[in-house]
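Internal ticket #5521
Category: modeling
Description: The requester needs a full-assembly model to guide mutagenesis choices. All entity lines are attached below as received. Residue total reported by intake: 684.
Assigned to: D.W.
Attached entities:
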Amino acid sequence: MPSTGPAIVVDKLCKRYGALKAVDNISFTVKAGEVFAFLGPNGAGKTTTAEVIETIRVPTSGTVTVLGMDVTKRKAEVVRRIGVLPQNFSSFDRITVRESLQYYARVFGCRADIDALMDLTNLRGKSAAQFSTLSGGLKQRLGIAVALVCDPEIVFLDEPTTGLDPHARRQVWDVLKGLKGRGKTVFLTTHYMEEAELLADTVAIISNGRIVAIDSPAKLTEEHAEQMRLTLKSIDSAAVALIRNLGFYPVPKGDDDLCVPVKTPDDVRRILEEIQRSGLALGGLDVRKPNLEEVFLKLTAETPAASGQERAA
Amino acid sequence: MTPRIIVANLGVRLKSFYRERSAMFFTFAFPVILVLVFGTIFTKPEHLHLDLAVQDLSSSEGSARLLAALATGDAFKVMAVPVAVDATQYAKEHRLNLLLVIPKNFEALQKQRLTGPHAGVPVSLTYVYDPSSTSVDTKIRLLDGIVASVNQKATGSPVAIALVAASILPERYRFIEFFVPGIIAMAIMTSCLSNALNMHAELHQKGILRKLATTPITRADWLASSIVYQLILSVVSTVAILLVSYFVFDVQLHIGIWLPLILVVEVIAFVGIGMLLTPFAKEAESASAVANAFLFPMMFLSGTFFPVEMMPGFLQAFAKLLPLYYVNEALRASMIFVDDAATLKYAGVTAAFAAVVFVAGTFRTRWDEGT
């Protein structure tokens, strides 16, 4: 029975582990039928928030309602109406793809169309393969099929493409686009901007346990990413201080790359001239128009001082 | 508890077990191998001879009769020692713990005993022995017995006291009959405890528990599935042990209604203990360590391999705190002694224990991690 109200309402949610505040007083609403992407760096509190909503963890304070039901009081009813792909999905090693789907269908007590699920996730050719023999991409696709086994109203996908090669990632995205087309409410946790930009109706960005922005990808980009992004490739860490002295805020990216938000082509020229003057070697560069990644980097950037120390060390 | 979920879990567990051939081998073959090894060591006394070295310096008709008497029955296998050697030296060199010397004038001394001035003086036989040997006392006692019997026959006096054996058991009872119920109980305990802990560690490590936490499976469902699964394995392993014992060692134990009932309460008790211990076994390594810490003391102190009565008093008291002791006693009471009252007593204690750990286990096995 589809619900007419909001799919998920999170109100002043806190989750502590001892002294650590993993989730710090966050509130948001997920509308029925939308794809809601929860973005954040590793350790920001994405998975903890998702697991509280999925009924796996109990909140320290605050309330979470799913389809109008409090997750701490009506766990048994909530779990029957949601489908969850946990982070690093795993299943019983010696059990085949078809048997895994049959198992979860029995556990939920529904008549699932196993063949249709395997078609949707492109697993038909692997129906007799045991879980331990599947590649990472196939395992994730089985995880998604398992999450969909009883046609849930809300689907939770926790980092569905982490650790997958680009080809496998695109296959998973195709499956997710299919879900979106069927009007499912999807709660997607990811740290891939491209994924959120491609699939999400609403994006919430979480950093250090707090939500720092929430809106549609287009509006977030419009509002926060007035800047272009200059990427300096294979550059010495000494460049961090150099660029900061010019009044910019470089953010380390990967092993030796630096990402610098800039406003005008003239900013790019100034930075490059400074690098040339200092004699620092530069492996390459890239200038990009504003996108969600800019917003993300801007909103989740560490303080410049801390970032510089980390890089120098 | 939902039967549908229990059946689904059972299907997955049994398929995994069947497809994991090494697990299957160790679950069923290990107890069977134990029965074969211990059975072979302890159940064939007809092959068990004690060697008796004899130096026959007399080589007479009388000494031949004595040698024949020594070789009668199963007790001794007589080994001849050359007459030309020194007996003590020979025993030392050949590490013999008992060497009997029949003197050269044995025949003559026997005749003197009957008539003449030395009538009534017994004929002395010397034995050379090694007092540090553990089996020599038994051999000397056996030798004494045979000599006494020879004396009694030689004097022609009738037997004054004869012993008649009457067993307290309805049928013949050997070590193997004592041993088999212990192995049945031990195999079930090991399988229940290790599987409960290893399964939990594996599910935890792989993150499957996190997925199961978002399904309608409850703790009671999980516990009930494990119990039914272990019960199936227990029946198969018990049947295997009983068949091997019967066909190889002719072990005939009483199999009645008590046996399945005891199996059920034992499985519930040990799956329950396993569930209670899962918080200490989140990785495969800690799971085996925790399992072994419980299995080994239980195995050796609960009367599985030898009777509890053989242990010092304080260990006997300790054994009575261990659930496996009651399972062993219940199985033996029902399968060997066919004593319903004793079976009821010991099975009752096991059942009470099982009920407590089952209830505690349903509370303790948490899906919710870190809450």
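Resolution: model delivered.
Comment from assignee: The beta strands of chain B are 50-56, 76-80, 98-102, 126-129.
Ticket closed.
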